[in-house]
Specification:
504 residues; alpha/beta; Peroxisomal Thiolase, Chain A, domain 1; OB fold (Dihydrolipoamide Acetyltransferase, E2P); six-stranded mixed beta sheet; globular
């Protein structure tokens, strides 16, 4: 291993299974099998032999089942995914890593592995991840037994689940699901733009319709169907309300069986192993940032962390967003794309450049923490077909909480610089649960099978502090009206640390 060597991405692979239990147990995938298939595809994609034996570092993106405290493992627990993956592809890496929780993981691991290679700490690194939620749900629905239990004796670094992304106040008011948090962002953006409920649903549909068109042509899409703006913006049995303002197909779909993998190595090792020049893709710049709990963020109609991560990546690459030819922006909800595009000054309405290469999390599929590894795989293929073009991948974790960006090209950079430590938010709003009058900042409404259930708002008190409150039945009806309630006065009553509000 030589310190100062140029890191290069040389192989990518993806896997997909439509197995959902209806055909019995034969062919059922597991998270491990999907990773193995994707990793073998990445090895083959390098165009050279002997790659598996050369892997000295192997990192696995954390799967859903290991991302929740005390989560059940209904099909048995693979207690060492990095070790079993290495075993099944014939690799014997000295270092095994099981990454922490977050959709930023894939790009963050690329940034990290590139830095390790440049520092002489690694020579050949494999990154892989997957989800088999479709198989799990299908097996339980159809009473099909599948077995994912496995393990290996190899020692590995388990980076755990990371810090808690929920506050006590948020949990007590029912903010426990991603769609609820993202609904707060979405309705803040709608209010900023002066849109009614139906107008914003139309805007979300116009943003995401091209995503569905890309997904329809992608052979690795879990849901390869192109949808119209009318379908996406209209509540129906197939596109039901989930949490205001979202309908089903505005939300990342996690019922997928998908895997992806990427191989990075030093350029000298690529030369030694005979990796063809046309396979090589370089990381020109990277950036990372982390934000606070959503309830203490000053900005609710955008993302400070996205601004920081993308700006750092572009600056390190020595380019601007105008120079980027291809984007894959994390698209768990429309507000994530609205926010990342705005962070880079990209007008999603008029800019001809597509904002996804995969088709996005609602249509291509949302394989947990691992989605952006698919975006990186697609970016590699896209750039190989367009030598010299620049591409940017933005990976998002939490509720626009953890961001990692990378700028890629087949053109070799003059020098490589490791990604700087993640930027951290320094400005907070004080949260205070107190009775009194305030001004509604943003809101969401949770839905169940019977319809709307709970309205949740952020409001500013007269002294500038923020409070969280749940809607009374009368206030819930107002939250469901066509006009945005943002900016209206509310009266809040706090009992047992839980606020309830009515409109004044």
């Amino acid at each position: 291993m030589a310190k100062g060597d140029m890191p290069v991405l040389v192989g990518v692979g993806q896997s997909l299974s439509q197995w959902d239990g209806t055909s019995g147990p034969d062919g059922a995938p597991s998270p491990l099998s999907l990773m193995v298939d994707a990793s073998k595809a990445a090895l083959a994609d390098t165009g050279a032999a002997g790659i598996a034996a050369a892997i000295d570092t192997l990192a696995v993106v954390r799967i859903f089942e290991d991302s929740i405290g005390r989560a059940p493992h209904p099909h048995g627990h693979n207690t060492n995914l990095p070790g079993t993956l290495a075993r099944d592809i014939g690799a014997k890496p000295a270092k095994l890593i099981y990454e922490t929780v977050g959709g930023q993981s894939a790009q963050a691991l690329v940034n990290e592995m590139a830095a390790r290679i440049h520092a002489g700490e690694a020579e050949v690194a494999l990154i892989s991840g997957s989800e088999a939620n479709r198989a799990s749900k299908g097996a339980r629905r159809h009473n099909v037994e599948i077995n994912w239990a496995d393990g290996d004796d190899a020692a590995y670094e388990d980076r755990g689940m990371g810090p808690m992304m929920l506050t006590r106040e948020e949990i007590k008011h029912g903010l426990i699901a991603p769609a609820y948090f993202y609904g707060l962002f979405e309705n803040a953006i709608a209010a900023r733009e002066g849109r009614t409920r139906s107008e914003h649903r139309r805007a979300m549909a116009e943003l995401f319709q091209p995503f569905s068109a890309v997904a329809a042509k992608n052979p690795y899409s879990q849901f390869p169907v192109e949808h119209s703006v009318e379908f996406l913006s209209t509540p129906s049995r197939e596109n039901y309300e989930y949490a205001d303002p979202f309908l089903k197909w505005f939300i990342a779909q996690d019922a997928v069986n998908q895997g992806a993998a990427a191989i990075l190595m030093s350029e000298s090792k690529a030369d030694e192993l005979g990796i063809p020049r046309e396979k090589r893709v370089y990381l020109h710049g990277g950036g990372e940032a982390g934000d606070d709990h959503i309830s203490v963020r000053p900005k609710l109609d955008g993302s400070w962390a996205m601004e920081q991560a993308t700006s750092r990546a572009l600056t390190q690459a020595g380019v601007t967003a105008d120079d980027i030819d291809h984007f894959d922006l994390y698209s768990c909800f429309p507000c994530a794309v609205f926010s990342s595009a705005a962070a880079m000054g990209v007008d999603w309405k008029t800019d001809p450049r597509p904002l996804t290469l995969t088709g996005g999390l609602p249509f291509f599929g949302g394989p947990g923490n691992n989605y952006s590894l698919h975006g990186i795989a697609e970016m590699a293929h896209t750039l190989r077909a367009a030598p010299g073009h620049l591409g940017l991948v933005l990976a998002n974790g939490g509720w626009m909480t953890k961001e990692a960006a990378g700028v890629y090209s087949t053109e070799k950079p003059k020098a490589f610089r490791p990604v700087a430590p993640a930027a951290k938010a320094k400005t907070q709003v004080e949260v205070h649960q107190a009775s009194g009058e305030g001004t509604l900042e943003t809101f969401t409404v949770t839905h169940g099978k019977a319809g709307p259930e709970t309205g949740i708002i952020f409001a500013r008190l007269a002294d500038g502090r923020r409070t969280i409150a749940k809607a009374s039945p009368a206030a819930l009806a107002v939250l469901r009206e066509e006009a945005s309630p943002v900016g209206r006065k509310v009266k809040i009553n706090v009992e047992d640390e839980v606020g309830t509000f009515d409109f004044i």
